[in-house]
Design the sequence.
């Protein structure tokens, strides 16, 4: 696990495209990723297998709170522990920096909800109609937190 920066955005885009179902419109563009990475408190975590980028996560922090904004694993590497390793790395980094809570939001009908529960996150709320799918449909977001 390593930390990246704006120079790594081109490398994460193929993972982004492969990992996110286009019908939900959740994948970020390269410019969105670059914009985030210019903000203080943002971090890009990279997971590599040999020289291949297998997955990544984007977070940001303010004061004692971390927010997991995006996590993706290339389909060739899904179910191999990459996402769990990214989560554990985020938790350790946040803990070592004195953060107390990690927050995230996940689409209500996304199976990743169960992954987050298995990794210690708990549901704290729902944001109705938060996500807008490519087809115009609205999907609720489940707000979750992990207490460090």
Sequence:
């Amino acid at each position: 696990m390593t930390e990246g920066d704006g120079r790594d955005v081109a490398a994460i885009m193929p993972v982004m495209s492969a990992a996110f179902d286009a019908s939900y419109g959740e994948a970020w563009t390269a410019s969105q990723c670059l914009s985030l990475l210019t903000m203080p408190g943002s971090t890009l975590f990279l997971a590599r297998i040999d020289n291949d980028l297998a997955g990544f996560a984007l977070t940001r922090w303010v004061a004692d709170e971390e927010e997991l904004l995006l996590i993706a694993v290339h389909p060739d590497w899904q179910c191999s522990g990459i996402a769990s390793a990214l989560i554990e790395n985020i938790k350790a980094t946040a803990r070592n920096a004195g953060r107390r809570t990690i927050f995230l939001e996940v689409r209500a009908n996304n199976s990743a909800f169960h992954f987050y529960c298995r990794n210690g996150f708990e549901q704290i709320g729902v944001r109705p109609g938060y996500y807008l799918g490519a087809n115009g449909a609205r999907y609720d977001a489940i707000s979750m937190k992990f207490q460090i």
Summary: The helical segments are 9-19, 30-37, 82-96, 112-118. The two ends are 20 Å apart (CA to CA). The mean pLDDT is 95.
